[in-house]
Amino acid sequence: MTTKRQPIIQVKDLVARYAEETILENVSFEVYEGEIFVILGGSGCGKSTLLKHLIGLIRPYSGQVIVDGEDITHANSQGSQGLLRKIGILYQSGALFGSMTIAENVALPIQEYTDLPSDLVPPLVRMKLSLVQLEGYEDYLPSEISGGMRKRAGLARAMALNPKILFFDEPSAGLDPVTSAGLDRLILHLNKSLGTTMVIVTHELQSILAVAQRVIMLDKGTKGIVAEGNPVHLRETSRNPLVWRFFNRQPEESAHPA
Amino acid sequence: MRVLGAFLHDKAPISLTVDLSEVTYVDDFGVLVLVQLRHRMTAQSGSFSLINISDRVREILALLHFDDLTEKAPLPRKQISNIFVRLGDASLRHINDFRYLTSFTGSIFLAILYLCRHPRSLRTEDTVLAMQKTGVDALPIVGLISFLLGLIIAFMSSVQLRQFGADIYVASLVSLAMTRELGPIMTAIIVAGRSGSAFAAEIGTMRISEEIDALFTMGFDPTRFLAIPKIVASIVVVPLLTLYSDVFAILGGLVVGVLMLDLTANAYMAQTFATLAPFDVFLGVLKSAVFAFLISWIGCFRGFRVQGGAAGVGEATTSAVVSSIFLIILTDSVFSIILRYWG
Q1: Where are the domains of chain B?
Q2: In terms of domains, do A39 and A117 share one?
Q3: Which of A5, A43, B104, B201 has the smallest set of CB atoms within 10 Å of its CB?
Q4: pTM above 0.90, yes or no
């Protein structure tokens, strides 16, 4: 890994605000190419807000977000169109289009952005679906499959155009431990075989320890990053009480004493 | 508790000690009694104490924060500031709404321009589906309502016109009123109720389930992807529905004419055709196309503006229908005024 420490995402002095409430203040970090990077923190610390800034859904109040050499905070719509094709996003609920079948959902970006002859689209869709072990479910509607399958289908759609970066919003939220572990394994597998950079927002401790190579931890109080590094290392050595409590699954002091 | 309260009121003791030695278990209702007693005593500036508390009870009391339950005031909710702040908030919200409305309308016109230059970019399947839902599925209800409307107009007017022996003008009245005014308006109102609401609900639900975000980050323009098929479908289908409604209204009038006024069907139809100028029909169709645009535009707009959860979708749906109907009536009066001074 030391061979290519090329930053693919750079965040500089990001300030995020909703109306008059500041969510994040002066957040700066880098994500390197090919790594699995996890943004973690307790509820309401701004994880999802940060993710929305990284994918350009929200413009920052100030600061810069540079994805693959392009500043998305100033990119005009043409530029960000090209950029959007380099990233794939798995939303919390999968965000599949309810009126389309699984196959149509996955085929949508392929048909729209490639010149692939139409008779080659179905086999490609099948390949994408087999990547997430969903072959055979092409003609199902999103409402007809389980939550875990919807997430995997969402992942297949996110990977339709072979993105350089994949973003995950709470991938294991609402999944049982087995399905969730399966998704973790899938993430690791895809990262290893395709070399895709993964940015994951989650607070699922086991999932973090299983997949993350590097993490940043956000906190509501400081409105910024309180820790950065390898999760196992952080768990063992961090002296910051916030980090310690998170990785050792301890409640806050004011909560009920044992 | 009431007995205890009366007792405390009458005797007004200076101190109260509750012996819990016989108590093995207490639930939150029991704790409530203790809290009330303590509250009464502190109000009378007396003292209150518990003795002989078993471990189990002590645990429960600790769990329910018995010691500091009443002292902590509930966290103040932000909101409810003074009237000026709220007024300002409301104004800002409306300004934001308006700003969004403007940019949304702009994006629709850009998308329509783009569509004119690249007709093949239209999502044909979605458009056909929207046409079916807005148009074909509305045929029975539009037919029935228009038929009844024709019937009512003919019936009411025949009572008056008969006094002057002008029975035959029932045909003129029904056909003219329906093609110029009521046909377009009634059809538009039905479409607003059926489809305008559906557009808002569909797009609103997509908004809260992150599907719009997904579209955007996949590089699709949500306006072009979601709004344009609906708007195009409405503009094509609603004028056709209006013509269909005209036909059924005239049929309704015909039934009254033949059964109650002893007119022949031939005479009725001849009078209808003699009255109607092509311009009347054209005007009705033109109006309904404008109404169709307004309904689908406001429906999609409300959908895109949905915030929060399921309640937000409900609000958007309601406001889509209400604003559509308002806009329909408003535009119709604008049409009337223009025609008055122009025609």
Answers
A1: 2-63, 123-342
A2: no
A3: A43
A4: no
How close B112 gets to chain A, by Cα (Å)?
Answer: 18
Which domain does A155 fall in, by range?
96-162
**A147 reaches B (C-beta below 8 A):** no
One domain for residues A154 and A167: no
CB A56 within 8 A of CB A72: yes
| Contact residues, A window 198-227, toward B, CB-based 8 Å cutoff | none
Q: Does A100 fall in a domain?
A: yes
Q: Which element (helix H / strand E) includes B17?
A: strand B15-19
**Is residue A108 less than 8 Å (CB to CB) from chain B?**
yes
Instruction: Give domain status of residue A5, yes or no.
Output: no
pLDDT at A68: 84
The domain tally of chain A equals: 2
Domain boundary, last residue among A114, A140, A162: A162
Q: Quick one: A182 and A124 in the same domain?
A: no
Same domain, A172 and A151: no
Q: Are strands A214-219 and A224-229 parallel, antiparallel or unpaired?
A: antiparallel
- A191 and A246 fall within a common domain: yes
Q: In chain B, whose CA is at the least distance from the CA of A255?
A: B63
- Number of CB pairs < 8 Å for A and B? 40
For an interface test with B, the pick among A81, A90, A99 (most B C-beta atoms closer than 10 Å) comes out as: A99
Set of chain A residues whose Cβ sits within 8 Å of the Cβ of B209: 93, 95, 98
Q: What is the pLDDT of residues B36-46, one digit of tens each?
A: 888 888 877 77
Q: What pairing do the DSSP bridges indicate for beta strands A62-67 and A36-40?
A: unpaired
d(CA B76, CA B73): 8
* CB pair distance less than 8 Å for B219 and A84: yes
Asked if residue A61 is part of any domain, the answer here is: no
Does the distance separating the beta carbons of A113 and B219 come in below 8 Å? yes
State pLDDT tens for residues B148-190: 999 999 999 998 888 888 888 999 999 999 999 999 999 999 9
Q: Spell out the SS3 assignment of B171-201.
A: HHHHHHHHHHHHHHHHHHHHHHHHHHHHHHH
Q: Which pLDDT belongs to residue A48? A: 84
Residues A82, A195, single domain; the answer is yes
Which residues of chain B lie closer than 8 angstroms to A113, CB-CB? Answer: 219
Residue A3 pLDDT more than 60?
Answer: no
Task: Give the residue from A117, A143, A162 where a domain finishes.
Answer: A162
The angle at the Cα of A151, spanning A147 to A155, to the nearest 5 degrees, equals 165
Number of H helices, E strands in chain A: 9, 10
For chain B, which residues score pLDDT lower than 50? none
Question: What is the pLDDT confidence band of residue A258, given thresholds at 50, 70 and 90?
Answer: very low
On whether both A103 and A176 belong to a single domain, the answer is: no
Mean pLDDT of A106-126: 86
- Average of per-residue pLDDT values in chain A: 84
Let me know if residue A41 belongs to a domain.
yes
Shortest distance between the Cα of B122 and any Cα of chain A, in A, equals: 12
* pLDDT at residue number A43: 78
